[in-house]
Amino acid sequence: MSSISRQLSSIRVSVNKPSSSSAEVRLVLLGKTGSGKSSTANSILGSKVFDSKVSSSSVTQQCHRVSGEFRGRNLTLLDTPGLLDTRQTPQEVQKELRKSVSLLYPGPHTFLIVIQIGRYTQEEKDTVWQIEQAMGAFAFGLSVVVFTHGDLLEEGTSVKQCMIDGCKDVAELVARCGGRYCIFNNQSFKNKEQVSEMLALVDSMMQENGGICYSSTMLQKLEMVQQKSKMEMEELKKRQQFEKKDEEKLSRDHDEAFRRVMEEYVKREKETKPQEMVRLMEKPGGQNEKSNGEEYPKGKRGKLKEREREGISANTEEQASRQREEMRRDTFQKELDKLTMSLKEQSKKEEDTKRQMESLIRRERKESQRERDIQMENMRAEKRRTLALQQELKIIRMKGEKQKETEENLKRQLEENLQMEREKCIKEMSALKKQYDKKPCTETMKKRSAEKHSTLTTVTGYAQEMGLLRLNAALETVGAPCCIQ
Fold first, then answer.
1. Based on CB atoms within 10 Å of each CB, which residue in 183, 247, 364, 412 is the most buried?
2. How do 73-79 and 24-30 pair as beta strands?
3. pLDDT by residue (tens digit) across 193-235?
4. Cβ-contact 33, 52 below 8 angstroms
5. How many C-beta neighbours within 10 Å does residue 316 have?
6. Which of 102, 182, 103, 179 is nearest to 150 (CA)?
7. What pLDDT digit, counting tens, does each position of 436-457 carry?
């Protein structure tokens, strides 16, 4: 019975007492250099525990963890190095970000993505991209967007109007974070309502996802997906390099073939040009000489021959030049056709490569979405298991309370029975004691009565005897002849 009571009491203690993990909230602040992460952490904790100042380089170079309390709740904050830091490489910053899982074991509940109110530039976009590369896309499902420098807002203007509705990228980021965002004015540590609003968003998110945190298992899955994607990208890059080498080789072969064709053409042109010139010059000259030899004098004939030769030479050169131009044009046209075909093939290959890249990106996105869906399903399953465990604990607690009530009833009945038995025993003892005390008195009385009776008998006998003697003496005195015996 006592062992059962101890077990039930231990169960009651474990059910009623909130665990430290559920009472504690672990937060990680993320953002670019100068966004106001450290000031936001100071505002949450209500004191200046992190260094914060205006600087082009990040004040926080390594992860810095501090614990505090806000209205009875334990808070653990981790300030991270600024993304796009001027003194650290992206790999070093990502390595520091991933330390948050081990520094806030078993993992952070929420990521606070800190963005300064103002123009959403390419740096902010790169910051979000670095967060996704370091922690994975499913980290946004555990995030809250914190807009700092709320004092810069004009009166009557909200963050939704000036940031979310006015910028598609900000709206997309807030949507990826489940629509969770809040505003911080870090000029004063006394404003506790902004902290309460932020914690209300965190509580609502934790209630929806069953209180899960970003664990090392999620980080391992992210690293596996990134490793697989990196291997596929390297393989695709190798294929592109091989294709580029093949294209360069084809281009060199094409240029070499074109050069050989041109050299052969020039060589053939040099060889055929003098022979054709001589043939053209000799043939018309001989005919003219035969036809006009009788008609003109020798002087005039020589001049005529010279003119004819000049005209023939000019015509020949013009024809040869025209032929060369036509041949060169034909050759260039052929080469142009070849180059066009080669460019078309190269463009086709580039389009194929582009399609492969797009297909790979789509596959990676599908894989990432599938991982995100699996993670969300795991979160929902974890939530269902948590609810089932809570229900079981509730049933156990009810059974324990019922068992406790039964034990108390049994104990009460047992105590009543014991009390009754005790009273009965006391009564019996009292009766026995009275009986024991009464028995010796009766015997004494009897003894005393017997003694008294014997005394009376003796006295009575003595009196009777003395009376008879006196009576007989009196009779003798009177002289009566009788005697009483």
1. 183
2. parallel
3. 889 999 999 999 988 888 888 887 888 787 788 778 778 888 8
4. no
5. 19
6. 182
7. 766 555 565 666 666 656 665 6
